[in-house]
Amino acid sequence: MSRPLTPTIADCLEHRYLRPVFQPIGSLATGDILGYEALIRGPAGTPLENPVALFAEAARAGALVRMERLAARTAIAAFIEAGLPGKLFLNYSADSLRDIEDTRDEVRTFLKASGIQSDRIVLELTEQAPLGSLESLTKAVFSIRSRGAQFALDDYGTGHANLGQWIALKPDYVKIARVVIDGIATSTFQHEAVRALCKLARLSGSKLVAEGIERVEDLIACRELGIDYAQGYLLGRPSAEPPLTLSDVSLRALRVKA
Q: 150-156 and 121-125 as β-strands: parallel, antiparallel, unpaired?
């Protein structure tokens, strides 16, 4: 059966027109790969290939939770098949995190069948939909973490991601948004802002991930500030078959003594 030129969200769900790509997240201390973030692409050559458009349309169709559930399971299957090391970072809206808790027996069965341990999974809270009740979200996140998975705040410094969420949700990882990181090597304000985040992270026990790294100077600045991990085109581009090491240029930069 041929794929429709302009697939609907129902088409994407029924026929599973989703493709995962993976972007590495690396340690600034050692250059080792911590894991990979799964990024979803919709049907190739269509407007829904763009993930922003795909999930926005799913939300408009009232199918965001179903789409995110399918995206996660598709990514997990591809991650295991590719034999990628480390942790798998998966993007979820607040309602989808609540859904994981509500369907925990089904989720447990799926993970067992897939062959992935829950402690290899990091659930990232995204801003694809309203947060809703922080109290109910906190309960869901704490319950999920009690079963082995970890939790991350995504895009910290933009939108809904704020200090109140950090305090309530106690994330294992806080991913600092690209808008905060890009140009940090030459911006005194950004440098001092991130220095303050590093202090908060040490006090809370969270690990920081600098997002959107594209320049060697910014990578080195993040390492010197004490940020734990980084992600971005400089370290590795999203790919269906990602490398098992960070890029040569990033590894050379990280070997330079501070």
A: parallel
Q: How far is CA 66 from CA 58, 112, 183, 188, 203, in A?
A: 8, 20, 37, 43, 37
Distance CA 219, CA 202 (A): 20
What are 182-218's pLDDT values in tens digits? 999 999 999 999 999 999 999 999 999 999 999 999 9
Return the DSSP state at 47: G
Model confidence, pTM: 0.94
SS3 99: helix
Give yes or no for a contact between 54 and 66, defined as CB atoms under 8 angstroms apart: no
Tell me which fold the domain 9-253 belongs to. TIM Barrel (3.20.20)
In whole angstroms, what is the distance from residue 106 CA to residue 113 CA? Answer: 11
pLDDT digits (tens, 9 = 90+) for 56-86: 999 999 999 999 999 999 999 999 999 999 9
**What CA–CA distance (Å, rounded) separates 174 from 217?**
21
Provide the residue ranges of all domains of the chain, joining segments of one domain with +: 9-253
